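Justification of resources, computational component.

The compute hours requested in this renewal are based largely on the per-chain cost of generating structure records like the one below. Each record pairs the submitted sequence with a full structure-token output. That output is archived, and it is also reused by downstream analysis tasks.
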Amino acid sequence: MALVVATQDGKPDSAMGTALASRFKSAAINVSTSFFKPEFVSDNLFGTIFDGSTEVLNRLELAHSLDALLLARETVKFSRNPAALDNVLTANVQLQIQVVPVAGNVQSQSWAFTANGAGFSQGEALQMAKERLIKQIASDTTMSLGF
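The structure output for this chain reads:
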């Protein structure tokens, strides 16, 4: 299984990818976070597959190498509450995760997680939100792969 996590600005997120890979890795499942190059995300191949097209899967002949793709898309919204919180920024991060069957006996599945983080800069707020997402993923008991 190849795993790719994409940010909303079209870049891979390796830290979130590592967290998801460790969550799903087992003796029966090999999860690769380095199967695709960053261009897989920046050239919108990731987005095309995430949005439901299987044409790219066939064109890249992925069935020869993979049973499934584990794709995750991050969406971030920032807000500021100047009156109540001394101009603290809040980052709201949503992570949508999909299992996309490529070959073999793999079922499509999806999950979604949301976390908030606060800070005096967008970077601080985003980092806190991502840390909370990683904790949610690590402790989640509903995510499992059916193969």
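The mean pLDDT is 89. The domain at 2-139 is CATH 3.40.50 (Rossmann fold).
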